[in-house]
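In response to reviewer comment 3 from the previous cycle, which asked for concrete evidence that the modeling workflow produces usable outputs, we include below a single protein chain processed end to end. The sequence was submitted unchanged, and the resulting structure tokens are shown without manual editing.
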Amino acid sequence: MVKFKKIVVLDPILLLAEHWQMLHEYGEEVIEYSGLDSQQILKKLQREMDQDPKPMCWTQLAQEKIEIDELNKRIKNADCIISCWTSIPDEVLLNNNQIKYIGFWTNNATHRINFELAQEKGLFITIIPDYGTDSVAELTFAGMLAVSRKILISHQNTLRGKWPYELLKTGQYVPIASEIPQKILRNKKLGIVGLGRIGKRVAEIAMAFKMDICYWSKKHHLKYEEMGVKFIELEEMFETCDIISVHLSPFASPGIISKSIISKLKNGAIFINTSAGILVDQKALFDELENNRIHSFLDVYEGLPPRKLLKKLENYGNIFTYRSGWYTQEAITYKGKYLLDNIQKYLMNNKQKAAWEYFNENDELASEIQCSNEKST
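The workflow returned the following structure tokens.
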């Protein structure tokens, strides 16, 4: 098999040991840049927090800023580049005609490189469009069930020796049904905001729970409508659904789940977001949670999780994680495997689809990206 002359890995990506070994087999020379070390990141975090109290995403903070001259130096003579967070400016593409292939260790690269210029120069770019669909969808239901069944509260009561249902069984306390906070998912109305890969998988799992499923999306998905997943406008969804789960692209309009939309949630509704924190008016959501009017499972936030507030809100039966959706041993394995499969197929002249082909096929995602790009210019 033909090899690359030089492979440069620009970011500290997560690959299993066997995947690193395979990568070294695909290049005569492989250079890895590990980025900032943990102490540098912590110091940088503290400086940023002192200057700006608004929390910042750790991934963003840990990213090493590479000037164009330094980037040109690092990729000198490299015909293969692997990146995740590091952007490849037009100037770098124009000054490095030796580059043949760029593999992104992520599911999107539209904001990292100029696809049109790359195509003009005959470069081949790949992404990893799907590696964590099941991981995120399953975490969605883990959170949904945990909030519905009050798992955290039950766990804490068990450790404290408090078992409220024992009072019921012994006749010491007989509540009416509405006073029992635990609920099942069957027959509950689930609203899915965004019916992409993950949203569709959530719908499929919800069918097994025999939930009443509806969705909102920029376009209709007739196949799923034929399966009983009903299209519904966003405002009506928030007014009528027992559970809302957000699965939009991060390129959707920031704050699309606005204060006015959140205010329409039914009393006792459950709001779930495993998508992107910037899509939701976080203050409006937290205000509703503080009033204990609704409940929530969140895996994403505007920047870092506001831990002090979350500790307070967990007392109401809400559940919080941080970017745990994709982080499973299976997703990590798939991600490395697909990265290497892309490289191998390119070297064997059996190319998979180039990155831009995935976006051309997905009109909804393409329109969101276009909208995002227009706002940033």
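Residues 133-149+184-320 form a domain with the Rossmann fold fold (CATH 3.40.50.720). We consider this sufficient to address the reviewer's concern, and the full set will be provided in the supplementary archive.
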